[in-house]
Amino acid sequence: MPSTMPSPPARARAALKRAIDLAGAAMGLLLLAPLLLAVAAWVRLDSPGPVFFRQERVGRHGRPFRIHKFRTMAHAPQAAGLALTVGADPRITRAGTWLRRTRVDELPQLIDVLQGTMSLVGPRPEVPRYVAAWPPALRERLLAVRPGITDPASLAFRDEGERLARAADPEREYLEVLLPQKLRLSAEYLAQAGPLSDLGVLWRSLRVLLGR
């Protein structure tokens, strides 16, 4: 029976990626601490509710975890409904409008990287209901690694909310049009992922963040 254990080179690459994740997340939280504290205060002052939005996502090997984001919407108990934010959603707060446009709301996921549930670069984590729609073969590949704060798919579809707002049925548009394209890009990323390609994705993501 063939062994399912990763090869020594694969283990070495995984160890290097985790070391980069830990160093990058720790440095990012340290350097960004003044910004993160200021944003946290702004979120609390702008509307009632917690600083962080915590939502269940599917992580490595299918294990669920609760992601960290700055809260960008009016606080309300999570309901079983549309898990997408479409265009100028009226629930979005004044602070949330800026946070979403600049992607600063994603920065608390550096905490998730330190905790080991996420990586700096990797396929974006989805909610369980959309993971259930992934093709089985792709699901196995994408869930074999830690999900990431950024990846080529999230860069390519950073205008996702606006695209969904133009659709007659946003969830159908997401499931039938956007999601297959995002999965293809994520699979292509995994096929050639390595330290250099990850640094390239991080650099492109930083340029988008600073540009906004």
Q: Work out the helicity level.
A: 40-55%
Q: Work out the helix count.
A: 10
Please state the CA-atom Rg, rounded to the nearest Å. Answer: 17 Å
Instruction: Please trace the helix and strand order, writing H or E for each element.
Output: HHEEHHEHHEHHHH
Tell me the distance between the termini: 52 Å
Strand order of the largest sheet: 1-2
How many β-strands, per DSSP? 4
Largest pleated sheet: 2 strands, antiparallel
Number of domains: 1
Family: Belongs to the bacterial sugar transferase family.
GO molecular function, one term: undecaprenyl-phosphate galactose phosphotransferase activity
Keywords: Transferase
InterPro entries: Bact_transf
Q: What's the gist of this structure?
A:
The protein has helices at residues 8-31, 33-46, 94-102, 109-115, 128-131, 136-142, 152-156, 160-165, 170-191, 195-211; strands at 52-58, 64-70, 119-121, 148-150. It is mainly alpha-helical and 212 residues long. The strands form two sheets. Strands 1-2 form a two-stranded antiparallel ribbon.
